[in-house]
Amino acid sequence: MNYSANTSRSKFWDLVRGLGILSIVAGHCWGPAIPYVYTYHLAIFFFVSGFLYNEKKYGSAPFTHVAAKLKSAWPKYMAYMTLFILCHNLFQRVGITPVSADYSHSQMAVAIGNCVTFQGMESMGGAMWFIPLWVLACGLFGGTVWFCSRLLSFLRKNASLLLPIMTAAGSFFLGAWGVFFIFRGLPISYQLHLALLVQPFFGIGWMIKSCCPHYRQMLKWYAAIPCGALLAFWVRSRALYIDLSLGRIGNGWEYFLLALLGIYCCMWLASVIEKSRLAGGLFSLLGRHSFDIMCLHFVVFKVLDVLYGRFHLGDIPEIYSAFPQAYSTTLWPLYILAGTCLPALWGAALDSFKRRLPSD
User: Which domain holds residue 69?
Assistant: First the structure.
């Protein structure tokens, strides 16, 4: 099957997203990988969203763009977070979540109500903090494209030539404001400061698609190896620990540099994996169902903890209740394998079920 590099179902970009979600899962269970994958693992998704942005469809309708993102993200967010809320007391009794009080029926109703506005607080859904940030960041980028387009129209300039460049410049301007708010310790509701911070990744991704159609020819091993080596050296020499969720971005500019180095390495690796039918199929599956993996990999971790603790170590809940996983030194390969593949298979099964439903 032929895939277009400019569609949301591009095999290549599914592979890149697959490498991104694999990096996220590895960062949650494999200690040695954390300082390195945290530099780029979330930035990949903003970059890919920028590259795949459909200006013809949404350029003059930024709110339609936001609605499309909400339509794809909100129902699954509600479903998974509601499930975690309903299972809160069960998770407490089994001992696989941090100790807290059981929920009453009223507290469950309130917690589910909070999910409507992306404010779910369940520990099993801890990785889902990224979803409302992604929706908001996509909306900001769509608004930037619209504003720049209208400005160029007012100035009577050639929008097709200047719009990607001007939008990228605008995204860097917004990113600078994000850095400002973070360094001043000024968090904004719904993590708007982080949504501003990541705008340059959208702008760079869209500018590459618009201005460099032959970008795949620039993905070379003799460039990827130095990029990976520089990322590793920089992280080790500076003892960096990047964590976007906490606003830890080093000195600011180095976060963007390291993230772009990691993104380039993943793009090159995706171009290599694409040549293998087996590996390409697996990683594209992970990319297509990265949302399900993001939501469910903590649950998979804890199921493995319970099985290992009870049947191998003799039931020691004070250990396997550690969160998000308890036996990373021993089980990290299994965490990565099961934490990616099982949710992806679940997502694929759901998609298959939906396709069999009668359409209107």
Answer: 11-348
Residue 192 lies in a domain: yes
Tens of pLDDT, residue by residue over 131-188, are 999 999 999 999 999 999 999 888 877 777 789 999 999 999 999 999 999 999 999 9
Task: Compute the residue count for the chain.
Answer: 360
- As a whole number of angstroms, the distance between CA 119 and CA 207 comes to 33
Residue 17 lies in a domain: yes
Neighbours of 170 (CB within 10 A): 20
Decide if pLDDT at 309 tops 60: yes
Quickly state the pLDDT bin for 321 (edges 50, 70, 90).
confident
What is the average pLDDT across 204-230? 95
Establish if 344 belongs to a structural domain: yes
pTM above 0.90, yes or no: yes
**Domains identified in the chain, total number:** 1
